Amino acid sequence: MAALTTAKTQPDGSELRGTARGGLVNLVGAAVAGGGGLAVTWLVAVALSPAEAGAFFAVTSVFLLVVALARLGTPTGLVYWVARLRRAGREAAIGSVLRTSLWPAAIASAAAAAGLFAAAPMFARPELVRLVACFIPASVALEALLAATRGYRRMGPTVLIDKLGRTLAQLAALGVIAATGSASVLAVTAAWALPYLPAAVAAGWYLWRHHSSGDPGFPDRVDARAFWGFTAPRAVAGVAQIGLQRLDIILVAALAGLGPAAVYTVATRFVIVGQLASGAVGQAVQPRAAAAMAAGEALSARRLYQESTAWIVALTWPVYLAVGLGAEWYLRLFGGEYATEDARTVVWILVPAMMVSAACGVVDSMLAMAGRTAWQLADVTISLAFNVALNLVLIPSLGVVGAAIAWSAAVLVNNLIPLTQLWRTYGLHPFGALTRRALAATGLGFGALPLAFSGLGGAWALVALAAAGVAWAVALMRHRHRI
């Protein structure tokens, strides 16, 4: 892998075009999933009391943490191995990778579901925990099966089945429940969890129909030790990554109460828009980055990283800056009880941290596709430990503001450490010319100018943001072939 920094291979334009097509498909799905996620949060906030909404957010966070544990890191492992085997012309070995990964994940997810079901009395709302536990195997299967299709460089199934199908099914079910005017937290939780089952079935059907088993006359396989040697560190890192995103909600619920947990969740939900955009681009980049790094194609890997970062900045910084400047209006969308001083402070603390995260691009994916999952595990473990320690210290005294400080600090640690490793070891960094232009343009158009106009009144800042949004959309369309 050291040859990556000295390889002379020129960047392949087809790689960027393929990444752009996959990224565009994923971004459409991410837009729906991000908007759907905000809509789900809004429906829950308006249909339930803050205490019941807090119970829902805490239980679904527990569900996502357990799913991250039960999937054993298989999504990243499958993308990595399937992409590399196809690049090496070893299609026949893909079947061994599927068998090596999917059966252990299935067993682990069943065990995790049983364990969470049995542990339900330990939680404030055990009936909700038992309900979501039943859908853990379906969620694990969904993520693993779709990851295998992404290894084939097929982004469509992930978008159609998960980002569009599952998200819209959740939204439709919750909308029907909210429209009846008699929503209960149990019904809302069931409506959120149930779509995982048909989505998993659809993902399995697609992979079965399109997977090529290779030529049986030339048997080939990947050794289980090699597969799990790469994937096992990622299994722990995946749990820690979800912990960074969700554990604070659980800790706020435990240390401050379910009502504050609902306020904190609402105040931080804008983050999922940026995370989904980054994830969409990252899923398109992963298989191509794995193949480029396996072949020692330094310039191709660097260009993939830098131009994908420009896309992420162009898509997320306007959202983050708009939410930061319009925090009051954003929070009031969910109801007056959520537009508190603490909630506004949470938004203002998180916005700068998330902007730094976006500027680092898909640093986590690049480190994983370089085969450095052990480094990735160490980095995210340090970040999670930092997050938990700060939460335990700050939440009792500062409440949701303390949780926001802890999360922001952990986000910075989780991005800057791997960026340093990637830069020093492989010479890879996200700050290419296109990235620098995107940073400058979005910072000026959505930050400096609206902030200057805010001196004339809050309404003028919103007018400036709207004008910047129109200008930005025109610029993106005009230069769509470049980016």
Could you describe the 3D structure shown?
The two termini are 28 Å apart. The protein has one domain. With 483 residues, the protein is mainly alpha-helical. Helix 7 (156-180) runs antiparallel to helix 8 (185-193), helix 12 (270-294) packs antiparallel against helix 13 (298-325) and helix 13 (298-325) packs parallel to helix 19. It has 20 helices and no strands. It has helices spanning 13-47, 50-70, 74-87, 94-118, 126-133, 136-151, 156-180, 185-193, 196-210, 224-255, 258-268, 270-294, 298-325, 327-332, 341-359, 363-369, 373-398, 400-426, 433-453, 458-478.
Question: How are the SSEs placed, and which strands pair?
Answer:
Blueprint: H1 13-47, H2 50-70, H3 74-87, H4 94-118, H5 126-133, H6 136-151, H7 156-180, H8 185-193, H9 196-210, H10 224-255, H11 258-268, H12 270-294, H13 298-325, H14 327-332, H15 341-359, H16 363-369, H17 373-398, H18 400-426, H19 433-453, H20 458-478
